[in-house]
Amino acid sequence: MDGFLRHDRELEAAEAAPGLLTIDLAALVRNHQALAARVAPAACAAVVKADAYGLGAVPVTRALQAAGCRHFFVAQSGEADALLPVLDAGSRIYVLNGLLPGAEAACAARGIVPVINSLEQLDRWTETAREAGRRLPALLQFDTGMSRLGLPLDSLGEVVALVSAVPLDILFVMTHLASADEPDHVQNGEQRAALARVRDAFPDIPISFANSGGVFLGAAFHGALVRPGIATYGGAPVSGRANPMEPVVRLDIAVVQTRTVPAGARIGYGGAYVTPAPRRLATLAAGYADGIPRALSDRGAVFFEGVRLPILGRVSMDSMTVDISALPEGTLTLGSRVEFIGPHQTLEEIAAQAGTIAYEILTRLGQRYRRIHR
Ligand SMILES: *Cc1c(COP(=O)(O)O)cnc(C)c1O
């Protein structure tokens, strides 16, 4: 009875939500398994930073862990903290940015594994191990040409000497590909050659190399542990090619008002769009505060049962207006829902129209949607 009531209330709340963000955990797991199969015998981690690219780090981590994933990457130590309660004893969590001063002792005590990106971070983690009186795990990242994070390659000799003398267990040496989504980019080969120098300097330590794009560059880019993010979430790993991943995310937005306007009506802020003829309009309950890019003003669209409904005028903070003249009158009413991300409009299509990438669309999805994990 209780369970039934709770379910009922959940359904009601879902009905009342301005947007429904449906996350298909079964599809997510199948994506992970497809990537894992592609790179075997290398292991396949999951990058769950930024709340698992906006999809919910806790349910995503739970689902992937249940499917056998044991390696989880976040960007910041606070994100690792939040996932500790759901991690099994056999799973590890790594912090890509490494640790900011002051976070070391707590991370050591909690078993969080930092990626060491600089000599300062190496010093501080070594000091933490000495104070704790035990060896601590770490990953060691080298910068192979992205100029973002990692130890410089010209410090390789120095780092080899340092690492051999400190109470740290280096689990993997790693680097990050800057252009893996473009298979023909010259940088891929350059970074592979640079990483070969690191591998030769640390012959006994396994390598972590590929992100999503790197998984599709072939075995030479895999190492012993790959770190896909976007592909696990259904995003295209390689730009300009058919996306082999299954979609994971669907976003439906509620209609809050419909109206018919004559020719010459101004729509939204700035009155920027003026109707050339009478139009039927629907106002939708999500705007840029919910992650609908403002760049989609006058160019994006939503769909209803396959019919394209163009966004007219500027996207507001909490709403936007679409042209529903293509639908039979009365099709959409208060509370109807239209598709923003789904079978008729992929993440990549939305991103292209907004002049951005699928990663940004996902990670900006707002907190006001109701998230449903299936
Ligand atoms: C974000 C990130 C990844 C995952 O990248 P995708 O392109 O989403 O697969 C892997 N490694 C590092 C270092 C990252 O910062």
Architecture blueprint of SSEs:
Blueprint: H1 2-16, E1 19-23, H2 25-39, E2 43-44, E3 46-47, H3 49-53, H4 57-66, E4 71-74, H5 77-83, E5 92-95, H6 104-110, E6 113-116, H7 119-132, E7 136-143, E8 151-152, H8 156-164, E9 168-174, H9 186-201, E10 207-208, H10 212-215, E11 225-226, E12 249-261, E13 266-267, E14 273-274, E15 279-284, E16 301-304, E17 307-312, E18 320-323, E19 337-341, H11 347-354, H12 358-363, E20 370-373
Parallel strand pairs: 1-20, 2-11, 3-4, 4-5, 5-6, 6-7, 7-8, 7-9, 9-10
Antiparallel strand pairs: 1-12, 12-15, 12-19, 13-14, 15-18, 16-17, 17-18
How would you describe the overall organization of this protein?
- This protein has 374 residues and is α/β, with parallel strands linked by helices.
- The chain folds into two domains: 202 residues, Alanine racemase (TIM Barrel); 125 residues, Lyase, Ornithine Decarboxylase, Chain A, domain 1 (Beta Barrel), CATH 2.40.37.10.
- Helices cover 31% and strands 24% of the residues.
- Helix 2 packs across helix 4.
- It is elongated.
What's the gist of this structure?
The protein has 374 residues and is an alpha/beta fold. It has helices spanning 2-16, 25-39, 49-53, 57-66, 77-83, 104-110, 119-132, 156-164, 186-201, 212-215, 347-354, 358-363; strands at residues 19-23, 43-44, 46-47, 71-74, 92-95, 113-116, 136-143, 151-152, 168-174, 207-208, 225-226, 249-261, 266-267, 273-274, 279-284, 301-304, 307-312, 320-323, 337-341, 370-373.
